[in-house]
Every structure is written in structure tokens, then in C-alpha cells.
Amino acid sequence: MTSDFGFPTPSAALNDVAGFRAPEIPPSSHTVARATHRVLTLRTTTRLELVNLTERVQDAVKAAQVREGLVLVSSMHTTLALMVNEWQEALLEDIKTMLGDVIPAGREYRHNDPSQSDCDRKNAHAHLQATLLGHSLSFGVLGGRLALGQFQAIIAAELDGPRERQVTVQIFSYA
Amino acid sequence: MTSDFGFPTPSAALNDVAGFRAPEIPPSSHTVARATHRVLTLRTTTRLELVNLTERVQDAVKAAQVREGLVLVSSMHTTLALMVNEWQEALLEDIKTMLGDVIPAGREYRHNDPSQSDCDRKNAHAHLQATLLGHSLSFGVLGGRLALGQFQAIIAAELDGPRERQVTVQIFSYA
Amino acid sequence: MTSDFGFPTPSAALNDVAGFRAPEIPPSSHTVARATHRVLTLRTTTRLELVNLTERVQDAVKAAQVREGLVLVSSMHTTLALMVNEWQEALLEDIKTMLGDVIPAGREYRHNDPSQSDCDRKNAHAHLQATLLGHSLSFGVLGGRLALGQFQAIIAAELDGPRERQVTVQIFSYA
What CA–CA distances, in Å, run from A41 to A56, A168, A169, B157, C106? Predict the structure, then answer.
């Protein structure tokens, strides 16, 4: 039995979508919250590249055997950003074009000027694009599954590749 | 007794604003963290629409009887984004104008081109705007109340309506 | 022993980077998750200013004696945003320039028009810039340390100063 955004919902929640599901673990239980994590490594191959992390994050949630919880996905880099959107080839090209339209690589930036900066990667636009997209994403886990809508994919945006990158997936379990 | 950003603060925190409030539950207690959730349904009526979710999220926190905790508010859609800002009519119009200025609906996008995409909604701009705003928001719960500043409202941005939308509110309680 | 993005990793995780670290606390333990918080006060001195919060957040994590956990850093204001990027003088200037390029202060905004708005600060651009950057940040705590990459700094963006501002740091501990 699944809700219409694609993850299974306990029957109590279906019976009362607008209300709270009764907590399944009474407050006097000895079961504790726990945290686990996994480090994902990405090897990007071009300067600007979008990488689909959805399955790897879902696998981490499955391996953690979490029923209700929270997942934090974090980029460990200043020019690797994270976003949620649809994984469709045409749209992915539009996202890459948009990033360059909003923050062009070709402008003059202080970070790219050897007289003002010790960085020789000429990657100011990548840093700036990353500030707009964000460095981490949070998701719920409901009924044992990552709470993603039907068309939602977890996407890493490599803004200054190719590089080896690391993304941490930390999972907080409550049941 | 309230702090100047509008939520009640336990007296221990007031006495030592820069320091930590002593945890009220000793580590040996049997009280456990617990997770509950509520699914909010929105029915939007126009293409571009801002919806104030603040009260509905506050109600969910009250119903969960959380004293200290974390609230995760998540859009289950790729063209419904979430943001925090002031709920003022003039500003809401400015936000809508800004979205179209930064990412215009009228440009050519691959996602809108039938030869490259199976999507016939012509909503590429909505996907792109959503990537800049973000798909989820996290808030603290302090002293039993959602930790929002005086002028902060929780706003859903419908970028491709009208539609029926779902937003999950997941609440993690620690006391 | 540290991983290559700069935080210490328990040896079990190093032995199996792609896998889960076994939880150190068995489910039958009495240790509970707990939440603590600290309120940071910032006094900004100019209209547009970037403030490095990294050390203050790291100090809060140290004081909380958290081994594995989650940190939520939240702006309590609609014109103070938060972001993660590199703390380098040249880049900080680029970030400030970019904010004005993407959302110029000098445009006509309804929020700045006395006939439509009761706000006399002429700060519409600040609200709009804040919606793009975001109001909160989440980080993991791994092995007792804030899980930040080598070049990642936690940056508050004052978009409408000078003012006294408050940022809450809430820490959720699982071990």
C-alpha cells in the first residue's frame, strides 16, 4: 500500500492523513535513537556534471534498517553542490545552462585574479553557483523508505570537475 | 518570558545565552527520542502561487507535544519549493517577480521541446526555480515551540500549478 | 587518523568506507538521544557583510560533547541568510558582488514602495537574496567533530545591516 507520492504509509497514517500517526514505540521503551553513516565517493569526469545519487542514498537507508528517521546528505566540498529535482536528460541540460546564465564562468572575479587570490583553478563561478544550490539535503525516512516524491531525484552538481568527491550520508534512526 | 526573536526560552538559557542549557533529561533516563509525521495537502489555484504553511506546521508541533526537537518540512514534488521569509503582500509579489527575472518562463528550454522531452507541461522554468529555492526546510523546536524568528514564515512556492500538492512534516522529539 | 576531507573517522569506518559503521551503542542501552542549544549573537557593522561562524559552531559542538549527531544552524531573521563556502577574502567580495548582480538593490520593488508596504527599510533585495541562499544549515557530527570539508566555512550573510542578529545552534546527540 503506497501513498500517491510513492512511499509506503502505515495504515494509521492513511486512515488519518491530516493527523498524526500514533508513535509505535511507547516513551518507556528502552529502544534508543542511533546514528550511522556512509561515505559516498564520486569520480566526476567533466567540468560541469550532474550525478544521480538517489539509489546510493536509498541503499544506505536500506542497509541501516531504519523505519522512521532522518537522512542528512552532505557535500564535503565548496564546489560540489546538492539538489533535488527530476532526473531527465533534457532537464539536466537545462539545469547546466541555467547555472551558467545566472552565474557566468566568463565574468571577472577576484577569486580568479592572481593579484588577489592564491587559487589558480579559475573556479569563482563554481563557488558562487554552489552558494545558490546548497551544500546539504535532508530527507525523512517513513515506513522504512526514503521519503522522496515520485519524480524527485537526489542530484550532486559537480561545478569544478573532474575530481574525486566525497558525500556523507548520515542516518538517524528513531524506530 | 520570551527571547527577542519571539519564542520562549527556558530560564537556564536566558541566564547563559552564550552557553548551553543543561539537558533536562539525564543520560540514564528511559525517555527515548521519537518520530512522528503529518502529511499536509495543498490545493493551489494558479500557476505561480505562494502558500503560508506556518500555522499548519506550528499546529503539527503542538499536537506532537515536543519540548526539544527538530522539524523537517519536505516538498514531495519537483516544482513545489519551500522557503522562509516574511509574509507580506508586497514582498510576496516581489518574490514572484524575482523568480521570473532570474529564471524566465519564456526562454527556450530542452525540457519544453517535444523533440527532446516527453513532458508537455512547458514547466522547465518551474523545475529550475525549484532548484534555487530548495525542496525542504529544517527548524528547531525549543521550549515546546517552533523556533521561528518574529517575521519568519514558512512558505511553499507553487511554481507549476494549479495542482494538489503534498508536504510532509516530520517531527523528531528529544524531550 | 583523519579522512581526506579533514575529520577523524572511527577505524571501523576507515576499514569499510563504503559500508556502515556498526552502531557502538546496542539497542538495549539506556543512553538516550538528547538536544541542547546555544544562541549566537552577531553585531554586524555594514549593510552587506559576511560573518564566519565556523569556530563558534565548532565550539558549541565541543561543549556539547557529542560523538555522533546532527547540528542545525538557523537564522532567526528574514534578511540574514546562511551558506557554506570557502572563507577567502577575494571570494567573499565575489559573493557580495554576485548577490547584487542576481538581485539588484536598485530595482523597483513593491516592498520598497510606501504606497504598497509599511516597511521603510528599502530592503526588498535583502529579503529576495535571503530566499535564494536559505535560512538554515544542517551538519553531521562524526567522531566528535563537526563534519566539514577542508575548505568549508559556515558563513552568515548580513543582507540588511548593520544590526544585532541571532543565530541558533541546536545540537542533537546520539552517542
Answer: 10, 9, 11, 33, 43
Binned at pLDDT 50, 70 and 90, residue A174 comes out as: confident
Q: Give the residues across from C171 on adjacent strands.
A: C36, C71
Residue A8 DSSP class: B
Question: Taking CB atoms and an 8 Å limit, are A88 and B134 in contact across chains?
Answer: no
Q: Three cell numbers at A155? A: 542530484
Cβ contact (<8 Å) for C91 and A127? Answer: yes
Nearest by CB to C34, from B13, B25, B147: name it: B25
Q: What strands lie across the sheet with C145-146, from one edge to the other?
A: C34-43, C164-173, C69-75, C136-142, C145-146
**DSSP state for residue B163 in the 8-state scheme:** -
| Other CB atoms within 10 Å distance of the CB of residue A107 | 14
Task: Evaluate whether B158 touches B17 at the Cβ level (below 8 Å).
Answer: no
Provide block-wise average pLDDT over 10 residues at a time, chain C (175 residues).
40 32 37 85 98 98 94 98 98 98 97 95 97 98 95 98 98 87
Residue C41: list chain B partners with CB under 8 A: 17-18
- Chain C nearest-CA distance from B7, in A, is 10
pTM of the model: 0.86
Contacts of C85 in chain A (CB under 8 A): 78, 127, 130-131
pLDDT at C101: 98
**Residues A133, B131: contact at Cβ < 8 Å?**
yes
Compute, in degrees rounded to 10, the torsion defined by CA atoms C115, C119, C121, C127.
-110
Q: What is the mean pLDDT of residues B115-137?
A: 97
Residue with cell 532548484: B131
What is d(CA A84, CA B127) in angstroms, rounded to the nearest whole number?
10
Helix, strand, coil shares of chain B, percent, nearest 5, are 25, 30, 45
